[in-house]
Structure formats: C-alpha cells, structure tokens
Amino acid sequence: MKLVTTTLAALLASAALAGSAAAECEVTLRSSDTHPDGYPTVEGVKAMATEAKEKSGGRICIEVFPSSQLGEEKDTIEQTQFGVIDMVRASFGSFNDIVPVTQTMSLPYLFKSEDHMHKVMDGSIGEEIAKGFEEKDLIALAYYDGGARSFYNSQKPIKSIEDLKGMKFRVMQNDVFVDMMTALGANATPMPYGEVYSSIQTGVIDGAENNFPSYDSSGHAEVAKYFTLDQHLMVPELVAMSKASWEKLTPEDQAILREAARNSATVQRKLWADQEKASEEKVVAAGSEVIKDIDKTAFVEAMAPVYEKYVTTPEAKDLVKRIQETE
After folding, report:
1. How far apart are CA 235 and CA 246, in angstroms?
2. Backbone angles phi, psi at 311, to 5 degrees
3. Ramachandran category for residue 323: left, alpha or beta (phi over 0 → left; psi -120 to 50 → alpha)
4. DSSP 31
5. pLDDT > 60? residue 192
6. Secondary structure letter of residue 164 according to DSSP
7. Average model confidence (pLDDT) for the chain?
8. Is residue 108 part of a domain?
9. What DSSP string runs through 91-135?
10. pLDDT of 224-257, one tens digit each?
C-alpha cells in the first residue's frame, strides 16, 4: 500500500505540473518509461500520443513520463495492474514473474532475425500472447524492438562455435544465460554491468554480450574490439495499458488507441534501427571489427539441452515450434 500511495503522490504532482494542456483533454492517460527522453521507446509512445490526439479530435491525451519518473519497470508494471498508472513500456523480461509465456521469449536463438521477431509478434502468436497479459489486468497494445544481444571480446574474432571454447564471458545473473554459455563451450561469469569494462581490461573476463548501442555507450568497444553479430537473444518490449483504464474507454476510443499503438511500433522500430546503425558505424570508425554472416547452425543446435531444460510443457513446446516455423 505504501508503494501505491507513493506512486499516486508522484502522479498527482506530475499532473499539477502538466497544467492547462491536460485540462483540454477529456481523457488523459499517463505512461511510464525507464529510458530517458529521446530514447526510441519513449519517442514511440510519443508518436502514439500524437496520433491518438489527432484522431480523437484532441479528446485523448497521453502524457509520457521518461527516466523512471514514476518508478522502475517492475514497480510501474504493478501500478499499471492496479490502475494507478494508465500505461507502461517495459521489457518482456520484467514480466517473467507475472505472465509465464514471456519466459519462453527469452530463449537463446529463438528468433532468426529482428525481422523474424517482428513477424511473430505482429501475427497470431502475438495476439495469443496478449491474452496472457489480459488475464493479469494488462492490455497489450504494441510490441516494440529491444534489439539483439551479440558477443564481443578482447581476444579474437569469433567466427564459429569452436572459437568460443574456454572463453570467459560476462552474463546477467540468469540461469538461462549461464546454461547457454555452457552449451556453447564457454565459461559464464555473472557480474554487475558496471564491472565489465575493468574486468575485460584486466583480463578477468574475455568479453561480454549486448546490443550495439550498449556496446558503444558503455565504452566496452574500447577494450573489446571484436563484435560477433550472432544475435543470440532478442527480447520484445511491450506497451501495456491498465485493464481498469482500458475499460473506462468507449469502443471507439479503444480502436483509436489500438491503431495508434500499432503504428507507433513502426516508428519505434525505425528509430531503434537507426540507433543501432549509428552505434555500429561509430565503433567501427573507432577500430572495432564486426564479424557478420556467420553460420549460426552449430550455435542453434548447441541449444538443445537448454531448450530441454526450460521448455517443459506441451504448450511451451508448441509455441517454440510455431515461432521457429514462422516465415
């Protein structure tokens, strides 16, 4: 209850600052994001807000609160379930304890490419996954792109699975990640993100894994010059709305929001692709070597014991099969 009260107080203060602009709107929805202003996910929800306001004749307004102003992801997800916050943008990973099907989406090499992930999430599988959120008082409005994680290291270009043997890579404290590295023949070293730079620099680890923007902004490209674009993990991002807030809307306004959200995903994905490209160009110009077009067959086949351990129910096995078969 204390968390609810604190968040409510923050919302009331933010609403006061919004001033007369919000007063012009018949429906004002507050949306939370942990990323800073200007980040692709924030700009995606802003695009949704612009379209919703235009198509509703100014009746629907969405106020976007970036930089964790309303709390961190897990807290704001909970408040969205309660209806204290109207909308939230969060990674699928933050929903793992709430909507079990999201755990399946964190399996390594589940998606062949970012385009494949988009096709899966925009189709019937995405609609099916959305039902799992509704059961938890959340309405899934749009699936955004959170990028693809790949390996980078200070020792050598990784062009095949054999090149990974015996190497030490930092991974998040996550059993799936640890088991993934073991299956690839490498050694997983869980550690805080802030320790990665110095650990690569001093040889405690050989490398880590992340997307191009993080590889760039963290400075890791300075000490780990070899980036292998294997894209072993792609976790979707979600824009979700409180079911309580959703049910207060007319069917017409719900339709406006759904269309605006769907269109905003296109905007967000384009912005993310541009950011990835800019980061890649920057690190290459600074001396990094990007290894592309590797044959991932052996990497994917090595995941058999990982999938056997974590994909245990008939429903999960069927979902994985359908995702892999999506063209």
Report:
1. 25
2. -105, 90
3. alpha
4. E
5. yes
6. G
7. 93
8. no
9. EGGGGTTT-THHHHTTSTT-SSSHHHHHHHHHSHHHHHHHHHHHT
10. 999 999 999 999 999 999 999 999 999 999 999 9
